[in-house]
Amino acid sequence: KLKFRMSGITYLKSKAGKAAKMGGGRSHLSLDTTGCAVFEGGDTLDFELCKPRYFGSSRTVASSQIPLTEVLHSARLGSAHASVWNLELLATDAPTKVLGSLVVDVRIRTSKLHAAGGLGALRLAALPQPPAGNASTATCGVEGSGVAAAALGPAQDARACEAFAKKAAKAQLRLQEVLGAVRRATQSQKP
């Protein structure tokens, strides 16, 4: 199967398939996989060819990367035309050995987060779950959050709210970093 990853997070994976023998002893595997991902940062788009296992995670046998700057320079924002790459999949145990090739089409568009699936579309900068609570207790000190503290007692409420506020601040910082990275990358491609 094939995995698409950014910053170590898997955004898309194909179903496992078997390669068909072609002429000249070559094999061909059609994955026919299409998907979308919200950019959450990273320097590369990573593709991994994996061998599924009966128990546990699949094992990566080959991989390839496209630098993000190359993607942003070649893909026209909002265009219906894709940037196409023919990537060599290099063996993980022998980085100079080409195990196969992969044709990748990439399109980039901007949209509001809610149009791309909302907060649920985020994987790397996912927002933490607020503590359960009731409306009569404090709001975890997060202005305008409307998040009530857990009804566990003052000490537990304070710890739960403190943990939530730290995780929310970390997610906010991560989203600001992503926005800054995209702005810098798109500004560097202007003539």
TrEMBL record:
It comes from Pyrodinium bahamense. This is C2 NT-type domain-containing protein.
